[in-house]
Amino acid sequence: MQAVALPSLLSMGLGLVNTVVQNDAAQRQADAEAQQADLTAAQTREAARLQAERTQQEAEKEAEELRAERARARAGSTAALGTSGVLLQGSPLKVLEGQAYEDEQDAQSILQQGITDSQSILLNGGWSASNVQSRAAATRKKAAAQSGANLTSTLGNALSNYALF
Q1: Which end of the chain has fewer CB atoms within 10 angstroms, the N or the C?
Q2: Rounded to an integer, what distance in angstroms lies between the CA atom of residue 98 and that of residue 88?
Q3: What backbone phi and psi angles, to 5 degrees, belong to 86?
Q4: What does the mean pLDDT of the chain come to?
């Protein structure tokens, strides 16, 4: 019986070592995937930040261009009124002031839309990055749980085989 037990013990020991090595490889693979996911998430967040910044800058440029265009139009209206002999007081002045106010409101609307769009880009980028990291964490946990299950199963089989001898 001793001669049969020694090869069985060696086989069980090698089985345990094999399981530990496989579990370690699976955990390393899961860790590598998680590290890659962290890198991808950081790149996604940075890309979103840059896109949000560009969006905001474009809105600021558009608002400034609108202000300049409308200011030129108001200057033309003012000049036309002046050459026609209309005094810049009373109703004509109120009309020009009203136009200036509306022009500024339009520019502010453009800026606000730029802010809204930028925030949306940042939120979507953050959500995408978090989603990538969540999947990587789940993969890591799954690998750890599978490793534990494999080791428990191998130990159980080894102990049941040893009990037979």
Answers
A1: N
A2: 13
A3: -80, 135
A4: 84
* Residue 42 belongs to domain spanning: 2-164
Residue keyed to tokens 């809204």: 116
Q: What angle is formed at CA 104 by the lines to CA 73 and CA 123, rounded to 5 degrees?
A: 130
Tokens 């946990």: give the residue.
141
Q: CA 157 to CA 160: how far, in whole Å?
A: 5
**45-99 residue pLDDT tens:** 999 999 999 999 999 999 999 999 999 998 888 888 777 776 666 787 788 888 9
Phi–psi pair at 48, nearest 5 degrees: -65, -40
Q: How far apart are CA 16 and CA 157, in angstroms?
A: 10
Is the pLDDT score of 161 beyond 70? Answer: no
Domain count, the chain: 1
